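Hi support team,

I submitted a single chain yesterday and got back a structure, but I'm not sure I'm reading the token output correctly. Could someone confirm the output below corresponds to the sequence I sent? I've pasted both exactly as they appear in my results page.

Thanks,
R.
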Amino acid sequence: MFDPILLLAGNPGPMTGPGNNTYLITGNSGSALLVDAGVGTSTHVDELASALRQRNARLADVLVTHGHADHASGAPRLAEEHPGTRFLKQPWPGQDEQFTVDWQSVSDGDIVRAGDDELLIVGTPGHSPDHLSFWHAQSGAMFTGDLVALGTSVMIHASRGGNLADYMRSLERVLEYGPRVLLPAHGPRIEDPRALITGYLSHRREREEQVVAALRAGHATVDAIAESIYHDLSPALLPAARENVRAHLEKLRVEGRAVFDGARWSM
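Hi R., thanks for writing in. Yes, this is the structure output for that exact sequence:
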């Protein structure tokens, strides 16, 4: 039975909830794969070592969904603790170099061994340009990184390579696989993927309508548009709200529906 072991990365916060989820996959072969590297906390490193000992397994691979620090910055610590481990991700030039391990490239369509199982690499850019998801066909499970999270939305970091149009296409692509369960990097597992993803798509379309309405009402900056849309939002989440507004504006600009003169946005 395919039964990944959830290991929290030990980095709770406003943007990470109780902390990043990482997933350990082991098998009878004695090799193991970890989905996402965490941030290198001693708690995470110790729990990983304990789980490997209990299963008499060796960490063969760390497969990273994308290069944001809460997913990749733990790689150097894991490399110290587990010599010979491979670190796999889709390249993100200018970002990957800060995490000092010998990254090996994977991309859409590749297959990676995970214990006794195989994972198909599925390109799901948008949250970041290098974002990947991992599909386990036999169980219908997909590891989705920061693509979705139960009970909240996902930030599209437009100023650092995020792209809303790509993100929405990635959501639609995941639906095409018909997954039975999604294993996200934040929050609980998602038992009804279709309902959640269709809700995400609807939410983004509604948010776009709100951004358009704000522009038509004369709100001409990211801050002004964000303040007109997001009411009673925690100050800790305002930067994420602004990034999402920026992502919507960039999508509208590429589609020829909005313009930016260097200082102000307009329809």
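A quick pointer for reading it: Residues 5-191 form a domain with the Metallo-beta-lactamase; Chain A fold (CATH 3.60.15.10). Let us know if anything else looks off.

Best,
Support desk
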